[in-house]
């Protein structure tokens, strides 16, 4: 688990943030060798074509359907993601990861649904996350997802902060840094900001000062309105050891979303795009799209359009980039 990634459960009921979940790689399969390569490739369109070809040859490949789900998740196409993840679970109901990704997809769908429909979807999220944990004692990201649900959801929707703390205690035995991030999110939800900050700082120390935990701390500072501290933590992340490129993607995204240091954010995104392999949580097309947004904010329509086109060249179905290109091209 690294930075907890955003996961919407229901805008009207509560906001569930999964800046906690890191990419889970699946083992190779005879029917779908090295699926993680399809999740980290720059060209999402090509990955979907490859998976479609494989599905035509083997319609019972649960793993292929799960990867399709995760690619549509990157595209923010929740309907297609749910359909593919449901198919994966139907084909292999004993996979912890498959239930986990179905829960995440239901959560994002709930965030844009009306209150009545969202209520049912949120219950599905809880059920899928609980099933993922029950099936995967070693699936720490599923523990993180469920803990975040328990911490964020109101009691009537299944929230239980005591259960969230117990899940963090389980993770503590295996990955103290991630457990302290979980505890930080819980203390933050409880309104104990000083305790939350201390947990995020302990996560940095426990990790040996990995970049992604500095970004977790920076994200906390952004949520609490401490933007100068956020920038300081981001600067420290840039000098820290990278074990995954997602720290770069998230650091640049924080600057972009906060309206701070756009030139620095552009430089970090470009550094991320120079990598050989992209994080599943930070697809290349989204990095180009966010670069376009940065240029657009700086009134540079030409470079903004160039980045939006670059995003669409990799992911032609990505509607935010389509809308943005149409906007700057007018």
Structure description:
With 330 residues, the protein is mainly α. The N and C termini lie far apart (42 Å). Residues 1-7 and 9-32 have low confidence and may be disordered. It has 17 helices and 2 strands. The radius of gyration is 19 Å and the shape is globular. A two-stranded antiparallel ribbon has the order 1-2.
Descriptive labels:
330 residues; mainly alpha; two-stranded antiparallel ribbon; 2 strands
- Our estimate of the beta-strand percent is under 5%
Structural class: mainly alpha
Oligomer status: single chain
Q: Can you count the beta strands?
A: 2
Shape: globular
Instruction: Please give the largest β-sheet.
Output: 2 strands, antiparallel
Q: What is the CA–CA distance across the termini? A: 42 Å
Unreliable stretches, pLDDT < 50, 5 or more residues? 1-7, 9-32
From the alpha carbons, calculate the radius of gyration and give it in angstroms: 19 Å
**Order of helix and strand elements from N to C terminus:** EEHHHHHHHHHHHHHHHHH
Mean pLDDT: 91
Please give the order of strands in the largest beta sheet: 1-2
Kindly state the percentage of residues in helix: 55-70%
Tally of separate helices: 17
